[in-house]
Design brief:
Blueprint: E1 7-9, H1 11-19, E2 32-39, E3 42-50, E4 55-56, E5 66-67, E6 76-81, E7 96-102, E8 104-108, E9 115-119, E10 125-128, E11 140-143, E12 148-154, E13 163-168, H2 173-176
Parallel strand pairs: 2-10
Antiparallel strand pairs: 1-6, 2-3, 3-13, 4-5, 6-12, 7-10, 7-12, 8-9, 8-11
Length: 178
């Protein structure tokens, strides 16, 4: 089967099927995610907490699920990269959510020793905000030993969602658990 490359997806469908966090509410009030941000012209990881609180769904089929509104989104994109794709340094083209569906990707910062492997699936959502206006070299996304599938959701207004920075670095498991 030939993978789809750069296919445009219906934003509402992607939002409902991939981004609605269909986990029972456990008392967490806010959603945290790792961001690729920039400071002083250099990309870095940060653990962000989105300012809009989680809510509880009353929608049939997912009643009681924790959901996070991501704001207005632009044209969604499905991406496929082959195993061992080396990647090159690049800034994020626009501020965007990136959801890794499957595979493993090592994201590293060329101007530091920061690097992290993201595994597709649960907790594999990040926000890329190191655009050319903010970062001189951006980051490198290198696919490891299996194909990588992801969904890209740019913000409609070209800005990061309202958030607070919890700390510099990749969010750890306790911050990602609902």
């Amino acid at each position: 089967m030939t993978p789809l490359r750069g296919s445009r997806l219906n934003v509402l469908s992607v939002f409902l099927s991939l981004v609605l966090l269909v986990f029972p509410c456990s008392g967490a009030d806010f959603f945290n995610l790792t961001a690729i941000a920039a400071r002083d012209g250099k990309s870095l990881f940060q653990c962000w907490q989105l300012s809009n609180p989680l809510s509880v769904s009353a929608t049939a089929g997912i009643v009681g699920a924790a959901i996070q509104q991501l704001g207005q989104l632009g044209a969604a994109e499905y991406d496929w990269l082959p195993a061992h794709y080396p990647g090159t340094a690049h800034p994020a083209p626009v501020p965007q959510y990136v959801i890794f569906l499957s595979g493993r990707v090592r994201i590293s910062m060329p101007e530091s020793s920061e690097s992290h492997v993201f595994i597709g699936g649960k907790h594999a959502i990040l926000f890329a905000d190191d655009t050319a206006a903010k970062s001189e070299t951006g980051h490198v996304s290198s696919v490891l030993h299996m194909d990588l599938e992801s969904v890209i959701l740019p913000t409609a207004n070209g800005a990061a969602p309202p958030h607070s920075v919890l700390y510099d670095g990749v969010c750890q498991a306790p911050e990602l658990t609902l």
